Amino acid sequence: MPISLPRPLDSVRWDRDDPRGHVESWFLKANDPKAPHRAFWLKFTLLVPPGGPQRARPALAEVWAIRFDGDHSHRAAKGSWLASESTLGTAGLDVQIGSCVLSPGRVRGAVGEGASRLSFNLEFDYGPEAGQVPLHCFPHTWMYEGGFPKSKLYTSCPTTRFRGRLTAGDDIWAIDDWQGMLGHNWGRTHTPAYHWAQCSLFSSESGPEDAVFEGFSGRIALGPVLSPWLSAGVLRFRGEEIPLNSVAGLFGNRVSTALYRWSCVLSGGGWRAQWAVEAPRADFVGLRYFDPSGQENHCLNSKIASCTLQLEHRGARVANLRGERSCAYEILTRDHDHNVTVLA
Questions:
Q1: In the chain, is it the N or the C terminus that has fewer CB atoms within a 10 Å radius of its CB?
Q2: Are 338 and 319 in contact (CB under 8 A)?
Q3: CA 282: distance to chain centroid?
Q4: How many CB atoms within 10 Å of residue 85?
Q5: Contacts of 62 (CB under 8 A, 6+ apart)
Q6: How far from 41 is each of 127, 131, 221, 343, CA to CA, in Å?
Q7: Per-residue pLDDT tens digits of the chain, which is 344 residues long
Q8: What is the β-pairing status of strands 75-82 and 202-204?
Q9: Pick from 186, 139, 183: which is nearest to 160 by CA?
Q10: Was domain 22-333 assigned CATH 3.60.15.10?
Q11: Where are the alpha helices (DSSP H) in the chain?
Q12: Residue 163's Cα: distance from chain center in Å?
């Protein structure tokens, strides 16, 4: 059954009258199709401590930016402002944090200072009229509106293209039809441990492929301990939607994780996908993600990871897909002994 969210797509989910904590993000990434090891990532985010109007710390609105350059060095920056001074639209995509603006088909702004300053002025394809059909990692509407799972995730623009420029210090990148995405997630807190990936620049033995995949494995808090890995994903392949995200399947998928790599087997409706993604340490940037409680997590963030997806249908091999340094890959961990340099 198609997902039909009762709230406007990409509108803010934070209820200012709710005294519980809240985290929420709109995130964009793109790779240069001619040189996928060049990529960028932008994130507009909310961090709301619990306590309502009497909270001990103010609610923050932040903007993050990373420029990945696999030939040289990566650059990252972050800016923080009060959420009370930010525009957070409830009728659609309408976010303004400091001088940074995210709206349908447009993102612009700057964060950081001096050589670390990253500025961006970009247009992108947005909405069904531009060919963007949302991708949902969860299979039912109630999973987005109810209490389970606690963290919600969808991608409103899974195969968008960006045009404009990205400037790091004095170095300007011209962005000309770079392949990317716009996603949205929210919840009461960050999932304590997860691996997440998205790729829309695949090839096979026969050349470039019409495919986009997004998936995750996460461990949720069960009192003082963490659950086993729960996994789901969704694949669009040659115009067909292949759901790999049944509720029952969340608990039964085979998962393998290591410091800089993740693999799992996802299945559904006669389909079976064997997924794997990895990147060397040098292709990650470390980020500090705080929970509303103040817990510090580290996000190991790469937008130039490599991935493979072996697809079968009722036991017959359909395709061997590969994304060469074109995959978005994030690892969230509370273990800070990971040897990735934390830049923001």
A1: N
A2: no
A3: 20
A4: 11
A5: 43, 44, 45, 46, 47, 78, 79, 80, 81, 97
A6: 20, 22, 28, 14
A7: 578 888 999 999 999 999 999 999 999 999 999 999 999 999 999 999 999 777 889 999 999 999 999 988 899 999 999 999 999 999 999 999 999 999 999 999 999 998 889 999 999 999 999 999 999 999 999 999 988 889 999 999 999 999 999 999 889 999 999 999 999 999 999 999 999 999 999 999 999 999 999 999 999 988 889 999 999 999 999 999 999 998 887 887 789 999 999 999 999 999 999 999 999 999 999 999 999 999 999 999 999 999 999 999 999 999 999 999 999 999 999 999 999 999 99
A8: unpaired
A9: 183
A10: no
A11: 142-145
A12: 20
Distance CA 26, CA 42 (A): 8
Domain boundaries, the chain: 22-333
14-45 CB burial, b ≥16 within 10 A, e <16: beeeeeebbbbbbbbbbbbbeebbbbbbbbbb
CA dist., res. 305 & res. 277, Å (int):
7
Alpha carbon distance 153, 328 (integer Å): 15
If you search the block for the tokens 């019409």, which residue do you land on?
210
Length reported for the chain: 344
Question: For the chain, what is the radius of gyration of the CA atoms?
Answer: 19
Q: How far apart are the two ends of the chain, measured CA to CA in Å? A: 40
Residues 6+ away with beta carbon under 8 Å from 171: none
Pairing of strands 106-111, 87-88: unpaired
Q: What DSSP string runs through 41-110?
A: EEEEEEEE-SSGGG-SS--EEEEEEEEEETTS--EEEEEEEEGGGSEE-SSSS-EEETTEEEETTEEEEE
